[in-house]
Amino acid sequence: MWLPATFAVVILSFLAATVVGQWQSFATDRAAREIAYNTAPSIERLTSVRGELRNLHLVLRDELDRVARGQKPDPSPVNRARNAIQQEMDAYLALPTWSDELVLAGNVLRTQGQLGETVSRFQDEIARGDIPAATTTLTLDFNTAATNLNAAVMDVTELNAAHAHDLALEIQRIRSKATYAAFGLDVVATAIAIAGAVMLRRVIRDHADLVERHRRLEEERACELEQFAGRVAHDILSPLGAVSFSLQLMNQPDQSDAKRAQIAERGTSALSRVKRLVNGLLDFARAGATPDPDARAELRSTLMDVASELQPLADERAIELGIKEDGVCYARCNAGVLTSLVANLAHNAIKYIGDGPVRRIEIRTRHSAQVVRVEVEDSGPGLPPDIEPRIFQPYARSKGSMEPGIGLGLATVKRLAEAHGGRVGVRSITGCGCIFWFELPAVEAMAGVYESVPAPA
Ligand SMILES: Nc1ncnc2c1ncn2[C@@H]1O[C@H](COP(=O)(O)OP(=O)(O)OP(=O)(O)O)[C@@H](O)[C@H]1O
Ligand SMILES: [Mg+2]
Questions:
Q1: Which of 313, 351, 388, 437 should be mutated for ligand 1, with most atoms under 8 A from CB?
Q2: Which of 174, 198, 222 is the last residue of a domain?
Q3: What span, in angstroms and rounded, lies between the C-alpha atoms of 406 and 392?
Q4: I want to staple 111 with a disulfide (CB 3.0 to 4.6 A). Which of 149, 382, 417, 435 is the partner?
Q5: List of the chain residues with pLDDT < 50
Q6: 177 and 322 share a domain?
Q7: Interval between CA 405 and ligand 1 midpoint (Å)
């Protein structure tokens, strides 16, 4: 949302800078036009009026001298000089005037009228041959009228010059004001553009991080699904062994019907464990090794299931398999995952119990409001010292082990427990046996609700 807004502000700032620039050129153009087409031509015309006035004075004196010398009066040069003044005045008056100038222009017209009357009188006196009167008119009246007209023209000229000066200053003021405004807008636009670029860079970086995290997650998920195949293959072998054992027993002719029914039930429950295991591990793998927060598995029934599955194997090896649980409790994982955890540890205990005279395995549970803990204790030889430090790493197996296996069971237990927020560990005493344990977060709310469920016999 902020990105389009930033771009909009930047574009608006640049547009505003352009508008300010245009406004400046309109204002300066207007002032420059006023100077070029009004004040400058006015000054030029008024200056010409003054020049023509001097020329008229000379022409009148020539006329007086000529007639005084007895020559015939010639009004043409005087009339031409008068017309020249009139033409320049007309040209000036044709230009635009403003209110202050109008007052002064009125003075010019008035003094020009006085001058015209004086000149007409002079011409009459010359025509009559009255030289003394003409001399008086020229030296006194004409001089006074010419001085008045000159002064009036000077006033208008100065007014136009002052106006031109003001316009020039205004041009300068507009220019500097517009320059500051445009500069300020450019600075604002640049600052916003830089801020936008920084934010954009951050967004791109965050997006790249997100894409990278997503890619890693996908990779992990693919890897987890890949590992799933291995775990499933690994974990279902044991219950499938129970199924196959049941089928073999059922095929024996000396079995009674009651015994067969019991064997069939055991085989069926082994198969349902296979299903639960596969479903649980598949759910976990599909979730990219992230447990479902709503998952829960009841500990006691899972322990009973695993124990009943392993019982024939334990009997075969003359192992006493016991369960000690401290009431109903729920772990925060699905039933398949919990089955995998317990079955791996219990199966190892049977596999590696060795040939000692005491042959006992105990699966225990303990729980608090926060944690459930499962311990599998055996009376075997304990861990071989060569693998103890790396016992939970994949493919860690004792060199001298005669038991079949690939070394993934404990690595799977650690991986599943930790992925569900739990821990694993082992305490081994050479010659006395091992206690493998794992802990998982408990589902507190459920503990009270199921308090009344009777404990299994
Ligand atoms: N209770 C135990 N007593 C003694 N040694 C054990 C016990 N449990 C595991 N071990 C040793 O730890 C090794 C690793 O066990 P892990 O379960 O990871 O693999 P595995 O049992 O060899 O093969 P699998 O992948 O089939 O489980 C075993 O090979 C064994 O040497
Ligand atoms: Mg194992």
A1: 351
A2: 198
A3: 13
A4: 149
A5: 445-457
A6: no
A7: 8
The pLDDT of residue 18 is 81
Would residue 260 count as lying in a domain? no
Say if residues 411 and 396 touch (Cβ distance below 8 Å).
yes
Parallel, antiparallel or unpaired: strands 433-441 and 371-378: antiparallel
Q: What is the DSSP string of 370-432?
A: SEEEEEEEE-S----TTTGGGTTSTT---TT--S---S-HHHHHHHHHHHTT-EEEEEEETTT
If you take atom 9 of ligand 1, which residue's CA is the nearest one? 348
Strands 433-441 and 423-429, by their bridges, are antiparallel
Question: Which ligand ends up closest to the CA of 413?
Answer: 1
pLDDT (tens digit, 9 = 90+) per residue, 42-53? 999 999 999 999
Domain boundary among 198, 229, 247: 198
Per-residue pLDDT, 13: 77
Residues 20, 126, single domain; the answer is: yes
Let me know the angle formed at the C-alpha of 175 by 174 and 176, rounded to the nearest 5 degrees: 95
How far apart are alpha carbons 228 and 261 in whole angstroms?
A: 34
Q: Walk across the sheet containing 371-378 and list its strands.
A: 320-324, 360-367, 371-378, 433-441, 423-429
Residue 141 DSSP code: I
Q: Is there a domain that residue 250 lies in?
A: no
pLDDT for residue 53: 94
Report the pocket of ligand 1 as residue ranges, CB < 6 Å.
Answer: 234, 348-349, 352, 378, 380, 383-384, 387, 391, 396-398, 401, 405-411, 434
Instruction: Please tell me the distance from the alpha carbon of residue 165 to that of residue 171, in angstroms, as a whole number.
Output: 10
Q: Are residues 16 and 151 in the same domain?
A: yes
Domain that holds residue 100: 2-198
* CATH number of the structural domain spanning residue 438: 3.30.565.10
Q: Could you tell me which residues come within 8 angstroms of residue 215 by beta carbon, excluding any fewer than 6 positions away?
A: none
> Taking every pair of C-alpha atoms in the chain, what is the biggest distance, in angstroms?
181
Residue 184 and residue 298 share a domain: no
Domain-located, residue 442: yes
